[in-house]
Design goal:
heterodimer, A: alpha+beta, Glutaredoxin, 2 domains, 12% strand, elongated, B: alpha/beta, Rossmann fold, Ubiquitin-like (UB roll), 5 domains, five-stranded mixed beta sheet, 17 strands, 38% helix
């Protein structure tokens, strides 16, 4: 899977770096925990920019190539920042046969961005995600932790408006 | 004294439809009406009937309330819980008989089900080890440690006829027997909970609803093969499952059911969770092990098999969640009990995640050998909207479609393999006449192209070429030669790929070609998509006689493809039309049709 690499400059804080250091210190004696470190790093920064990958590689004493290899292999890792509101449209089979494709298209049209992209104001990003297992509610999407099920393309406008108006 | 229990489903389906708010409202209302000491609210795992979520059951009456709303709670509490008057209008309509309330087990959805792997789901509070123990929990482990030798445990599992529920169907007992004799400084038990099949959520439900069963089964497996360490590899997309499993592991450790010298038997076993990061190929056992070791999850060539050289180069048994969930029951009730269910070569039950175009989407557990018709029509309640059944898809991206003419196929491993399908992990997606089978094949190929790890060429390049051919056909540029080449390429990929992902990736194409070849042909020859799904092959047309010239469609069209003057029939310019369908939805007179 081709990953989009962000051109937005890295804006990590010292506080974030401190947190990452703590994580690395906890796990650095066991290289099999590299993925765990990367998962926690993504929780801290929201994505895995090159600078963070470098810190992880140094801290875990593995080649950067390995960190990059893992970051691009697993779909959970993102190389570009997410919006304040990250929309994931489930593309599992159950959702797909119930029209998830149309939902995705409507959102993409509305926001003017494609998969794994972020709107210019940094507010929304959109992902076509793997089955989240809420097949009973198909088609489903999530916006951060909120779940929306039994969607029709017409629901999209109202739902997006709710978030667009939030600070 | 608690006189009433309210069990609210806390599975992912129901929490997505706000069951947590229901619990909150219930507790608040119960408190307000002074019933805190008399009524207990329990958050359980999945009940199975996800389509009706959020759902809850009130015991001892066994009343099943479905699609509960927060606004309904005060009424349920004051009427039912306080005054004992059941709120019939909020009950699941199938449980409302003429004069009495039927038990849930008498409804069509549950009647034919036999719950073994799911027996505690929706029954106990998954976060309470005491409730698990009260339902015979950890008794099987105790029995193994005190009454059986490891060899006897393996024999019981072998005799039961249990086969791997993750897809392949390898006999579990034999897997254990192959690993046990190998001497090594460390052996491992791995639980595969990387449920990557789109549309399948059995393993998630077991972990969410009955996590202790998995811990117990892994400890039993550890005892049988001589392993002291276990890993559960779970998808990070399943936060509730991860949380409950972690709580369960901590509790089991606290109770001395994990750790050193379990139950004073001298047997040590401990386990930890490792999170997947979203790679379908990690469901393949060697890829999963590579991933736990902290690498890109690429599969390894076999032999050596994991039984000899698995995780960290040590002998390893890897079992799927549902397989493990059966183990404690087999130990307690004996192999004969288990093998009395099912067909000759497929024993026991199988959990399916019913989804797609079906009334009762949700989780069902049926004895092997139940027919597809029974599952879809009786348990699943048939297809909504009076549409016709077209096919059922099992096995996800590795499986195939069962067409309507094979509706009476008995579901077991061998029958499904015979018709070019596979059991897979248990996703069962129902499709009706509005589903285009070429498009479905394309959908699965898009998935495998995305998920192919890239290690071997047949899979990496082959699946990409397959997808290109399918795209050519669905865009109306295909030829009959493409169909033949498609088939040839499929067979080549099947024979030459390194791991299960590549070997099964062509199945969706092969099986749709086998049963729905005419659909491929109409895409190629007539340039038509019979189901009206493939956008390049259809156009929207206005029927002049029905058009009143109201201009509603002109206003709604995002690309200005519709023209015509007021009160005159309008026309759609096909070259501009993007086939969004907005005009058809808007037209009040049914004058716009897909062709």
């Amino acid at each position: 899977m081709q990953k989009k690499i962000s051109k937005i400059p890295f804006k990590g804080t010292a506080e974030q770096e401190q947190k990452l250091k703590e994580v690395i210190d906890k796990y650095c004696d066991d290289q099999s925990r590299l993925m765990m470190v990367m998962q926690e790093a993504q929780d801290i920064y929201g994505y895995l920019p090159f600078e963070v990958q470098l810190m992880i590689a140094d801290g875990m004493n593995v080649p950067l190539e390995k960190v990059y290899g893992i970051a691009t292999f697993y779909s959970q890792f993102s190389l570009s920042p997410k919006g304040d509101y990250d929309i994931s449209v489930c593309m599992g089979t159950a959702c797909y046969v119930k029209g998830a494709g149309e939902i995705f298209e409507r959102i993409s049209q509305k926001l003017g961005i494609g998969a794994d992209e972020c709107t210019e104001d940094g507010k929304f990003s959109i992902t076509a995600c793997r089955c989240i297992g809420a097949c009973g509610l198909a088609p489903v999407m999530t916006i951060n932790d909120d779940v929306y099920g039994r969607l029709t393309p017409d629901d999209v406008d109202d739902i997006l408006a709710k978030y667009a108006n939030k600070a | 004294m608690v006189r009433s229990h309210v069990l609210v489903c806390g599975g992912t389906g129901c929490t997505s439809s706000n069951s947590l708010k229901i619990i909150e409202a219930l507790e608040k209302e119960i408190n307000k009406q002074g019933l805190t000491d008399e009524v207990k609210v329990v958050q359980t795992g999945c009940f199975g009937l996800c389509a009706l979520g959020p759902v809850m059951i009130v015991y001892p009456e066994g009343c099943f309330y479905s699609m509960v709303k927060v606004e309904d709670i005060p009424e349920i509490v004051s009427e039912h819980l306080l005054k004992g008057r059941i709120v019939t209008r909020l009950l699941y309509d199938e449980t409302v008989g003429k004069d009495e309330i039927k038990s849930l087990n008498e409804t069509d959805f549950y009647k034919k089900q036999v719950r073994v792997a799911l027996r505690n789901c929706g029954v106990i509070d998954p976060e309470s080890i005491e409730e698990y123990i009260a339902y015979d929990g950890y008794m099987a482990l105790a029995k193994c440690l005190t009454e059986y030798t490891p060899e006897q445990v393996i024999k019981i599992v072998s005799d039961s006829g249990l086969r791997g529920r993750g897809g392949g169907g390898f006999p579990t007992g034999r897997k254990w027997a192959l690993t046990a004799p190998n001497k090594a400084p460390q052996k491992y038990v791995v639980c595969n909970a990387d449920e990557g099949d789109p549309g399948a959520f059995m393993d998630r439900s077991v972990l969410e609803g009955d996590p202790h069963a998995i811990i117990e089964a892994m400890a039993i497996a550890g005892y049988a093969i001589g392993a002291t360490k276990g890993f559960v590899y779970v998808r990070a997309e399943y936060p509730i499952a991860v949380k409950r499993l972690q709580i369960a592991i901590d509790k089991a450790r606290e109770y001395g059911l994990l750790g050193k010298n379990i139950l004073g038997s001298g047997f040590d076993f401990d386990m930890e969770i490792r999170l997947g990061a979203g790679a379908f190929v990690c469901g393949e056992e060697t890829a999963l092990m590579t991933s736990i070791e902290g690498n890109r999850g690429e599969p390894r060539p076999r032999p050596p098999y994991p039984a000899v050289k698995g995780l960290f180069g040590m002998p390893t048994v890897e079992n799927n969640v549902e397989t493990l969930a059966n183990i404690p029951q087999i130990i307690l009730r004996g192999p004969e009990w288990f093998s009395s269910m099912g067909t000759e070569k497929s024993k026991g039950t199988k959990v399916f995640a019913l989804g797609g175009k079906i009334k009762h989407t949700g989780l069902v557990e049926i004895p092997m050998g139940t027919t597809l018709r029974e599952v879809v029509e009786e348990i699943g309640g048939g297809i909504p909207g009076g549409k016709k059944f077209k096919a059922a898809q099992t096995g996800g991206p590795s499986g195939g479609c069962i067409p309507a003419e094979l509706f009476d196929t008995k579901i077991d491993y061998d029958n499904l393999t015979e018709i070019g399908c596979m059991m897979g992990s248990g996703g069962l997606i129902v499709m009706d006449e509005d589903t285009c089978m070429v498009d479905i094949a394309k959908f699965f190929l898009e998935f495998t192209v995305d998920e192919s790890c890239g290690k071997c060429t047949p899979c990496r390049v082959g699946t990409k070429r397959l997808l290109e051919k399918l795209e050519k056909i669905t865009s109306g540029n295909g030829t009959m030669q493409d169909i033949d080449e498609l088939e040839e390429l499929c067979n080549f990929i099947k024979e030459n790929s390194l791991c299960g992902l590549g070997q099964t990736a062509p199945n969706p194409v092969l099986s749709t070609l086998r049963f729905f070849r005419d659909e491929y042909i109409s895409h190629v020859k007539d340039k038509k998509c019979p189901a009206g799904v493939c956008k390049s092959l259809m156009s929207y047309v206005i029927i002049a006689d029905k058009c009143k010239g109201c201009t509603a469609c002109v206003r709604v069209c995002p690309v200005g493809a519709i023209s015509g003057s007021v009160k005159q029939p309008h026309v759609i310019d096909d070259s501009k039309c993007i086939k969004c369908g907005a005009c058809m939805e808007k037209c009040k007179f049914g004058a716009i049709v897909k062709q």
